């Protein structure tokens, strides 16, 4: 279906029916009244595949942006019009550039486009709309980032960064100018992330006993064949423990003090982290070496996502008209908490540089919600849910048995704070970026009635 948009036939007020009511009161007749009485403009727009965008009364046309928003491929009929952000956007992947002097040839041109190409064009319109045009803020930020790339040409973003997901605003050239350093381009480049991870254990309790969970966790993680090093982030008010207090391991254990001892410091882009993958852990997390290995192998196939164990979900509370947070164990989830999760180290940099100070200050003041904020960020960037991997049956009960964690879960203020956080975060992101999923990844042959010795991750099945 082809829709014709001209400036004089579809004023902005038609979107809410205002113009129609005004014309009915005034008894207006003619092309405008006839068009409005016959067609629902918004419905027609969203049901169209191609939208003709002829020149309007001025240099630009909001019809062009309306077409992008509706995933309708713009067919440009305005010779000499410079498309917005054409310096960095390849409009040939999202629009059809026609010649206004050859209007009668347009139907033949669009009908000759293959269905696969049409799908690609429509997908690109949605990406470009969401990435650069869906708000005034994004338009302004895109303008500023283009100027920055002009000034700092040596560190400017490549055309692929601007024209493919997640877009130039989420790919910060200050982090790296090499595509292979970002988790979004591995498939495009035909490469895989480095086959090792750095474990970052967030410590907030003093080390007083050799039987504390953090030491058991450290030993289990150190035995992983994929572990390159372990970083203990000391966010405890007590002084750093002596070196001999930490167990001997086959991998380096580096203990560093958290900046200002605040929650957000666990997501700082520490130079110590040299691997692509970060295994983020709370000090009281209970994981076996087998579970760590399996989670990492899953992450290697999904390097742009959060992959891990403790899952949570959000929901819309229609009575309170606000977002809610739940920790109920169900088949549905939208978050994987960073108390036991793997993600790409770039998200540390993005969290630090992209998230506004006001949200990070909120997290630090509450000493809560940093895991939710990281999930918001990754889902906003990827438009995808995290991935939950399977665990031993005893994991839930064992984890709940830890006194510090159990006390937080039983505290009603803890959940109230997290619901408040979710609504604050959703307000800043301009909507709810979290995506629900029911996918859980299990090891091959998990639960199969075969010899336990044939199973690669056999310890996961054992209680």
TrEMBL record:
The keyword Endoplasmic reticulum is assigned to this record: yes
Any one GO molecular-function label of the UniProt entry: N-acetylglucosaminyl-proteoglycan 4-beta-glucuronosyltransferase activity
Classification via InterPro entries: Exostosin (IPR004263), Exostosin_GT47 (IPR040911), GT64_dom (IPR015338), Nucleotide-diphossugar_trans (IPR029044)
Keywords: Disulfide bond, Endoplasmic reticulum, Glycoprotein, Glycosyltransferase, Manganese, Membrane, Metal-binding, Signal-anchor, Transferase, Transmembrane, Transmembrane helix
Residue ranges occupied by any Exostosin GT47 domain in the UniProt entry: 34-112
The keyword Protein biosynthesis is assigned to this record: no
Gene Ontology CC annotation, any one: Golgi apparatus
Topology of this chain in the membrane: Single-pass type II membrane protein
Signal peptide location: none
Reaction it catalyzes: 3-O-{[(1->4)-beta-D-GlcA-(1->4)-alpha-D-GlcNAc](n)-(1->4)-beta-D-GlcA-(1->3)-beta-D-Gal-(1->3)-beta-D-Gal-(1->4)-beta-D-Xyl}-L-seryl-[protein] + UDP-N-acetyl-alpha-D-glucosamine = 3-O-{alpha-D-GlcNAc-[(1->4)-beta-D-GlcA-(1->4)-alpha-D-GlcNAc](n)-(1->4)-beta-D-GlcA-(1->3)-beta-D-Gal-(1->3)-beta-D-Gal-(1->4)-beta-D-Xyl}-L-seryl-[protein] + UDP + H(+); 3-O-{alpha-D-GlcNAc-[(1->4)-beta-D-GlcA-(1->4)-alpha-D-GlcNAc](n)-(1->4)-beta-D-GlcA-(1->3)-beta-D-Gal-(1->3)-beta-D-Gal-(1->4)-beta-D-Xyl}-L-seryl-[protein] + UDP-alpha-D-glucuronate = 3-O-{[(1->4)-beta-D-GlcA-(1->4)-alpha-D-GlcNAc](n+1)-(1->4)-beta-D-GlcA-(1->3)-beta-D-Gal-(1->3)-beta-D-Gal-(1->4)-beta-D-Xyl}-L-seryl-[protein] + UDP + H(+)
Pfam families: Exostosin_GT47, Glyco_transf_64
Cofactor list: Mn(2+)
Primary residence: endoplasmic reticulum
Domain Glycosyl transferase positions: 197-446
GO biological process, one term: heparan sulfate proteoglycan biosynthetic process
Subcellular location: Endoplasmic reticulum membrane
Pathway: Protein modification; protein glycosylation
UniProt function note: Glycosyltransferase required for the biosynthesis of heparan-sulfate.
PANTHER family: ACETYLGLUCOSAMINYLTRANSFERASE, EXOSTOSIN GLYCOSYLTRANSFERASE 1
Family that this chain belongs to: Belongs to the glycosyltransferase 47 family.
Name used for this protein in its record: Exostosin-1b
Protein source organism: Takifugu flavidus
